[in-house]
């Protein structure tokens, strides 16, 4: 594998993915380890009554009520490169960060850049392209990158601190689903697998374009979904994989989530790559952290566990809504270009776990 590329100015530069030990949301600390680290944290919502959403339910962002009509949604997300193209890296990281605002039902209003770069290793024009990618995504979302912070670091890191607004009564949490709700997924799965294939020089141009197209699609339907009363819970599928984030919804509502494997959307080539042994190490860490809360039907393919735990970078919204509202939810996705949005399961009374059939 060639670990250098040519920049737009013609100079040689290291491949971005060669400078990091992990990439995208696969860099996340494993959920089991993170839970242990946060176990001694003091719950905050009781001490701060205007804090509508804190750390108690592992939700996507904090929400703070300003008045009866407005609440601030605050989040931050950053990671190491998932791709080698610096502009695409910036776009993916920014889209992923803004997703947490949309997942709470909010509308972004402002972002700050978080930048850590090996200044003496990467040409400055490469770093500038990363920043431009993030700025272009924020411009598409209708918001400015109004500042930020930068450091000289060993590995390249980029992301955003993002702020949004939402009506306090329209906040969509990951812990408020109801028995009988239907689960709708907005984007196809498999970004982690394709990123692993890219790092091994196995991903062709078509696969790369599909991965980047999915990972740079802003989850804007989240703000419109928040206006629907029968949308009860929402999150986005990122580093813990589909199983991990579905389990958060199930545990938050003390319900059993049933996912139909045959109904899941996949990015092209993902299943074949896993069959060839191409996937990220984060899949195994995810399963080790929460596998006891999941039942996989014996009839599923051998690759199912790896695919279902695949860490998604800038993945789709996962929505729990009343059955009679499904057509409206799908219509909001489809009219915003989310052609792969579909029903993947439901929530029922029972122990807080995920069953995949």
From TrEMBL:
Q: What is its EC number?
A: 2.7.9.3
Question: Where in the numbering of this chain does the PurM-like C-terminal domain appear?
Answer: 178-351
A Gene Ontology biological process in which this protein takes part is: selenocysteine biosynthetic process
Check the record and name the Pfam families matching this protein: AIRS (PF00586), AIRS_C (PF02769)
What region holds the PurM-like N-terminal domain? Answer: 59-166
Q: Where is the signal peptide?
A: none
Question: Catalyzes what?
Answer: hydrogenselenide + ATP + H2O = selenophosphate + AMP + phosphate + 2 H(+)
How the cofactor is bound: the record states: Binds 1 Mg(2+) ion per monomer.
Query: Where does the chain bind Mg(2+)?
Result: 60, 100, 236
SUPFAM superfamilies (UniProt xref): PurM C-terminal domain-like (SSF56042), PurM N-terminal domain-like (SSF55326)
**Required cofactor names:** Mg(2+)
Q: Name one GO molecular function term.
A: selenide, water dikinase activity
Q: Identify the residue position(s) of the site Important for catalytic activity.
A: 28
GO cellular component annotations of the record: cytoplasm
Q: Where does ATP bind?
A: 28, 57-59, 77, 100, 148-150
Q: Where is the catalytic site?
A: 25
**PROSITE patterns per record:** PROKAR_LIPOPROTEIN (PS51257)
> Keywords, A to Z?
ATP-binding, Kinase, Magnesium, Metal-binding, Nucleotide-binding, Selenium, Transferase
Fill in the subunit field for this protein. Answer: Homodimer.
Give the family from UniProt.
Belongs to the selenophosphate synthase 1 family. Class I subfamily.
Q: What does this protein do?
A: Synthesizes selenophosphate from selenide and ATP.
Q: What is this protein called?
A: Selenide, water dikinase
Q: Lineage of the native species? A: Bacteria, Pseudomonadati, Pseudomonadota, Betaproteobacteria, Burkholderiales
């Amino acid at each position: 594998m060639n670990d250098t590329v040519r920049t737009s100015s013609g100079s040689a530069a290291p491949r971005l993915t060669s400078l990091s030990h992990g990439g995208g949301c696969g860099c996340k600390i494993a959920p089991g380890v993170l839970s242990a680290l946060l176990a001694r944290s003091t719950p905050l919502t009781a001490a701060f009554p205007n804090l509508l959403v804190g750390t108690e339910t592992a939700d996507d962002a904090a929400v703070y009520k300003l008045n009866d009509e407005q609440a601030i949604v605050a989040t931050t997300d950053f990671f190491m490169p998932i791709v080698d193209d610096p502009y695409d890296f910036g776009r993916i990281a920014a889209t992923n960060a803004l997703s947490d605002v949309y997942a709470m039902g909010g509308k972004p209003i402002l972002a700050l850049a978080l930048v850590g770069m090996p200044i003496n290793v990467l040409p400055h024009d490469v770093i500038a392209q990363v920043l431009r990618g993030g700025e272009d995504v924020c411009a598409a979302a209708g918001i400015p990158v109004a500042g930020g912070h930068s450091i000289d670091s060993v590995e390249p890191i980029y992301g955003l601190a993002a702020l949004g607004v939402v009506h306090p009564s329209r906040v969509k949490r990951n812990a408020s689903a109801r028995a009988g709700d239907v689960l709708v997924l907005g984007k196809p799965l498999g970004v982690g697998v394709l990123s692993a294939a890219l790092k091994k020089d196995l991903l062709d141009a078509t696969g790369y374009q599909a991965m980047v197209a999915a990972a740079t699609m802003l989850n804007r339907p989240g703000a419109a979904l928040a206006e629907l009363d029968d949308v009860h819970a929402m999150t986005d599928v990122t580093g813990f994989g589909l199983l991990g984030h579905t389990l958060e919804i199930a545990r938050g509502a003390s319900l059993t989530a049933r996912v139909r494997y045959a109904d899941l959307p996949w990015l092209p080539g993902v299943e074949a790559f896993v069959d060839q042994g191409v996937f990220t190490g984060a899949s195994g860490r995810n399963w080790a952290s929460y596998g006891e809360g999941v039942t996989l039907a014996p009839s599923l393919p051998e690759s199912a566990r790896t695919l279902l735990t695949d860490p998604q970078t800038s993945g789709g919204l996962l929505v729990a809504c009343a059955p009679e509202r499904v057509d409206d939810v799908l219509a909001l996705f489809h009219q915003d270009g989310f052609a792969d949005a579909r029903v993947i399961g439901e929530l029922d009374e029972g122990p807080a776990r995920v069953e995949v059939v």
